[in-house]
Amino acid sequence: MTEVVIAGIGQTEVGEQWEISLRDLAYLAIRGAMEDAGGLKPQALFAGNMLSPNLSNQAHLGVLLADFSGLEGIEAYTVEAAGASGGAALRQGYLAVASGMVDTALVIGVEKFTDKVGPSVEEAYSTTTDSDFEAIQGMTPGGQAALLMRRYMYEFNVPANGFAGFALTAHANGIGNPNAMFRKAIKSEAYAKAEMVSDPLNMFDVAPNADGAAAVLLTRRDLLPERLSHPLVKIAGSAAASDTLALHDRHTLLDFTAAKLSVDRALAKAGIGLADVHFFEYHDAFSIYAALSLEAAGFAPRGEGWKMAGDGSISRAGRIPCATMGGLKARGFPGGATGVYQAVEAVTQLRGNADPSIQLNGAKIGMVQSLGGPASTAVTHILERI
Amino acid sequence: MTEVVIAGIGQTEVGEQWEISLRDLAYLAIRGAMEDAGGLKPQALFAGNMLSPNLSNQAHLGVLLADFSGLEGIEAYTVEAAGASGGAALRQGYLAVASGMVDTALVIGVEKFTDKVGPSVEEAYSTTTDSDFEAIQGMTPGGQAALLMRRYMYEFNVPANGFAGFALTAHANGIGNPNAMFRKAIKSEAYAKAEMVSDPLNMFDVAPNADGAAAVLLTRRDLLPERLSHPLVKIAGSAAASDTLALHDRHTLLDFTAAKLSVDRALAKAGIGLADVHFFEYHDAFSIYAALSLEAAGFAPRGEGWKMAGDGSISRAGRIPCATMGGLKARGFPGGATGVYQAVEAVTQLRGNADPSIQLNGAKIGMVQSLGGPASTAVTHILERI
């Protein structure tokens, strides 16, 4: 079996990047990843992007980014799977290198929410739901999350502040991440007083849309330049699964079936068990998704994932540290770049290069999971320091 | 090396399909491919689509199609590379199966130009050019082709009817293809009198936008069901390359460099030479692209590809039959489905299942090439009967 390693990582700050265009954002991350990989050049580029055809009137993005980054001639594609576009691009890059047909693959996730030229962000974002049956009725991704959260609170008797810990943990960790959008702790009083976005979802239950780009350069271990100085991280497991796109088509509403499938398969491929995973970068686009992802992965029984937010389980010293660099909530949610940010952050932790305030001690195996919609797409990767 | 075979093919008629939705079109092709493969089910789905986020307000299409086709749970993505989206999806499916990580991959190309809910087709289609530097100035894909055609005619002294043979050949072959949009021959007088679309590009130089879906089911040879009755076709070579997205960034205007690169690499992977190729499904979105593709592949010297249109070289009995089932011009141009249609048609020829009026005798090796923009993306596959 070909061993696929992450030779380089790059990222931009996450936030409202009014002065930087879509292609410039991507270029900064791409340059960073190539430099970090000792100048290694990719043969293929996989661009994870969610909304650029709508928000920036730009399709054919893969080639644009290859061209603009001076990588003219290499094969290049856009991979889209809503909020999981970054994870999906990582999966394609992994498969390409694993096939032996491509030696080095650059995975770039990029999203530009501000400075848009197209429709409203909410309108564009809603194209990721079932357009004919959901969006057309006014459904939005936030609306879907609110429905799930309401049902979850009813079904499992969750108090109003039951999800507060997800945001508190994310914001506490975000302080140590120089690229995070929010580097400020929040208090449970602030959560309790926060304005509703879509009842019962309040402002702190929702990760902020943001601009940003992140990149990883993948290659086979035997092709690595000698002069790489950083510890090496490999992709030990990679798997993806899907669920119904529309919520109303689900067999059960509160099971992230695709998330579970992808975790089980990724662990099996890596030949490890859940107990071997030292930290988990989940897709906390909405706090309810964090709870459901913890349950789907098997870290908590059904209906009890929310308790992990409050009892310290997911904090740095807890049983399974989550959102260790701020997660989607505090690092920000740069759409299709998100899944690549997760990989970049996990590699940073595994190399021991995180800020001391958030560095995990002795972490050797991290799990990253990228979701599209209410886990309609779930892509899970197991990253391991070698 | 894993041998990747095309176990099943499916397609819908190409044309204005007012009564059939995007998802229904895709389903018909998917069902066809699975039936043709003896009921084999895919583990992964790669959807080639160009404009659905704009024209149909539908992103996250991969999962929608998996879900709607009863393939719930499998991994699913959208792959986009403008007009080459279908070829790009085929390449991803190929890499996935070649990696050994995915046993069976369904590649579905689908596009729905009619019954759109978004912006005008021309506006949407122009998002595949460089939006910030080309589309914003009013450039369109047809405008790009017209610029190249004018320059080519000037540079190589091509007469006004120099490209007529491309349309004539395509329409002559389209008669024998029951799924073609146009099944009617045209005469050179009609070409000479045709209305200009973008001078010097006339109506018959432009492939018509159309609705349609095509699918191929890929697997490893050793996983094939016993009961498959049709002759088997394998993917002997697969390669892709890129060029600048914007025309004004090209080093030379009349070289389809990416097309050349992808052909050379695909032939090398297949271990054959150009002379071993029995027919060529080129991407004749515009007749000038057919000429430039013939030159890039090496079938004609620079500046002489257009001559092959008139001297019989590309007809059924010619040196290198092209557009054997009508090509983009007569079968129609269903955007991101196009590259998959080419594969389906090549398999039909290689199996010997084409209508007797267009069946090639003894064809064993076919080359299909999918282009995005003016060969900004080029994906080439070599298909071989085994």
Description of the molecule:
- 2 copies of one chain form a homodimer.
- The first copy, chain A, is of the alpha/beta class and 386 residues long.
- Chain A is built from 13 helices and 11 strands.
- In chain A, the strands form 2 sheets. Chain A has a 9-stranded mixed beta sheet, sandwiched between helices. In chain A, strands 5-6 form a two-stranded antiparallel ribbon.
- The mean pLDDT of chain A is 96.
Notable characteristics:
9-stranded mixed beta sheet, 18% strand, 33% helix, two-stranded antiparallel ribbon, homodimer, alpha/beta, 386 residues
Compact summary:
The structure is a homodimer of 386-residue chains. Chain A is an alpha/beta fold. Chain A has helices at 22-36, 52-55, 61-68, 85-98, 121-125, 141-156, 164-174, 188-193, 257-270, 287-297, 307-310, 327-331, 338-351, and strands spanning 4-11, 44-48, 75-80, 104-111, 196-198, 201-202, 212-220, 233-242, 279-281, 365-372, 377-385.
